[in-house]
TrEMBL record:
Entry-linked InterPro entries: Transposase_22
Protein's recorded name: Uncharacterized protein
Biased composition (Basic and acidic residues): 218-230
Ranges for region Disordered: 190-230
Stored PANTHER family: L1 TRANSPOSABLE ELEMENT-RELATED
Length: 273
């Protein structure tokens, strides 16, 4: 019996450990591909027999970028089996560059200019992320129109971290589900504050908004019913009058004390003895 209970208690720990190892595996896959780029759209067999040499010539022309030092490609090849029919969908090319700063430079140009046009073909360049990371990035991109609608500033960073700021408050999101929940809350708050035709909640509908009568308040009919802000102003005016009266009394007391002192000093000279 104790053995069975021990196994039952170890199952959640084992699930947490598996989830942790899975996340570490995804991170390692993303890190190992940080020097890689994927190229889509080149026709089949356009690279010839030397894919690295083909890319060393095509990439600077395609991105209109001068690389200093010259680009060095460690390895490059087409993904998947060779197509027998050249008219079918071409295979993507994956290339591993020697210098990561050149990868970063290529990706900046690719994201800014979008798909490239060359010889009637549309070429796309993407980073090399794991499947799980690509799914998270795709989920973030699908929520971009909603963020623009709610006037939320955002930025997507590698591998899959979305930064947002709204009303001076910044947040980081690593999963699209958390971002969706955050945007839903923002949308509900904006609807509550901007939509005058929005029906009241049950608590607001059942609330008595009428002003209490004088009998309920226990006040005299001769005194007007002051609202909270008017009560504060009235209390402040009374305190101001009290302070003025106190200050006047202090000044009068000081004048009287000074007069008594002067009389005490003049009294010996006026004494006939």
């Amino acid at each position: 019996m104790a053995t069975v209970e021990g196994h039952m208690h170890s199952v959640p720990d084992r699930d947490q450990e598996l989830e942790f190892l899975r996340s570490k595996l995804i991170d390692l896959e993303d890190i190992s591909g940080r020097d890689n780029i994927h190229l889509f759209g080149f026709p089949e067999q356009a690279e010839g027999t030397d894919t690295p040499s083909f890319l060393r010539t095509v990439l600077p022309q395609l991105t209109e970028t001068v690389f200093d030092p010259p680009m060095e490609i460690q390895r490059a090849y087409c993904l998947g089996p060779k197509r027998k029919n050249c008219s079918s969908k071409p295979r993507p090319i994956i290339a591993c560059l020697l210098r990561h700063d050149q990868v970063h430079q290529i990706m900046i140009v690719a994201r800014a200019r979008g798909p490239f046009k060359t010889n009637g073909h549309e070429i796309r360049i993407t980073a090399d992320f794991s499947r799980e990371t690509n799914e998270r990035r795709r989920g973030f991109l699908e929520l971009c129109p909603k963020m623009r609608q709610l006037e939320v500033k955002y930025g997507l960073f590698d591998p899959a971290r979305l930064w947002t700021t709204k009303n001076g408050l910044s947040k980081n999101f690593y999963h699209p589900e958390d971002l969706q929940l955050y945007l839903d809350n923002l949308q509900s708050l904006s609807m509550d504050t901007t939509d005058p035709d929005r029906p009241l909640s049950a608590s607001c509908e059942n609330r008595d908004t009428s002003l209490p009568s004088l009998e309920q308040e226990g006040t005299d009919r001769s005194t007007p019913d002051l609202r909270p802000r008017d009560r504060d102003l009235d209390r402040l005016a009374k305190s101001h009058d009290a302070c003025a009266q106190l200050l006047q009394a202090v000044v009068l007391h000081t004048q009287l004390s000074d007069r008594d002192k002067s009389r005490s000093l003049l009294k010996p000279t006026l004494d006939p003895t």
